Amino acid sequence: MALVPYVENVVPALSKLQNSSARFHFASHDIVIAQDWRTLGVAAVVWDAAVVLCMYLELGHVDLKGKVSIELGAGTGLVGVVAALLGAKVTITDRRCALEFLSNNVKYNLPSDLWESVAVSELSWGEGLDRFPAGGFDLVLGADIVYLEDTFVPLIQTLQHLCADATVVLLACRIRYERDTKFLTMLREQFTVEEVYYDKNRDIHIYKAGKQLPRSDL
Ligand SMILES: C[S@@+](CC[C@H](N)C(=O)[O-])C[C@H]1O[C@@H](n2cnc3c(N)ncnc32)[C@H](O)[C@@H]1O
């Protein structure tokens, strides 16, 4: 019988998730994000989609100065931190179990004069949405948040609640499974959606979405 030893980081692309920290340089700042895959799982590691979304923001495709923004499923908060460093006011959100780790990463990586520009809040998609102003955001950000089919409906409900007609939604996604494209189909029923960027090396797509304006001819 062949003996196959258990090697935890057998897939090289996943081994970096097991490092206790990840380092980046965005918006002229060194950023060190603590990771804890073993204890907190998906919410406590930096996913490629977050890195690509930060690169996209840094390239200046979106004007972030003073923009009222919210990040959904922020995990370690890298995207929210970079958005704040680039001048946005950001509410950085995730499920309750992820908040303590998230807050520590955000605080560690932002100069104290930016702490007032950032809030870390619980937001489980579809729940307690009245705690967030309806249509109150210029920009909604999400990196690698399209992966659980059960969450597709509440995630779209959440986008509907947060977005005004002019709100820009940026979703950085790795399309892993057929069901992920189902999310895009569902989103297109209520939002206009276009792909604005593709990182070939990391296989990450960035989609820009906005509420469909009511058709004047109907
Ligand atoms: C794959 S991780 C991505 C984390 C981070 N955005 C990144 O790219 O590094 C998915 C994130 O979505 C969050 N999430 C999953 N289901 C959620 C839900 N129902 N409501 C809010 N956040 C959720 C997880 O806690 C996790 O932080």
UniProtKB/TrEMBL annotation:
Location in the cell reads: Cytoplasm
Q: Which GO terms describe its molecular function?
A: methyltransferase activity
Q: Which UniProt keywords apply?
A: Cytoplasm, Methyltransferase, S-adenosyl-L-methionine, Transferase
Q: Tell me the SUPFAM superfamilies matching this sequence.
A: S-adenosyl-L-methionine-dependent methyltransferases
Q: What Gene Ontology terms describe where this protein resides (cellular component)?
A: cytosol; protein-containing complex
Q: What is this enzyme's catalytic activity, as reactions?
A: L-lysyl-[protein] + 3 S-adenosyl-L-methionine = N(6),N(6),N(6)-trimethyl-L-lysyl-[protein] + 3 S-adenosyl-L-homocysteine + 3 H(+)
Q: Which domain of life is it from?
A: Eukaryota
Identify the InterPro entries for this entry: Methyltransf_16, SAM-dependent_MTases_sf
- Cite a single Pfam family from the UniProt record: Methyltransf_16
Tell me if S-adenosyl-L-methionine is a UniProt keyword of this record: yes
Q: Has UniProt tagged this entry with the keyword Transcription?
A: no
Q: Which PANTHER family match?
A: HEPATOCELLULAR CARCINOMA-ASSOCIATED ANTIGEN, PROTEIN N-LYSINE METHYLTRANSFERASE METTL21A
Family the UniProt entry places it in: Belongs to the methyltransferase superfamily. METTL21 family.
- Name of the protein: Protein N-lysine methyltransferase METTL21A
Its taxonomic placement starts with: Eukaryota, Metazoa, Chordata, Craniata, Vertebrata
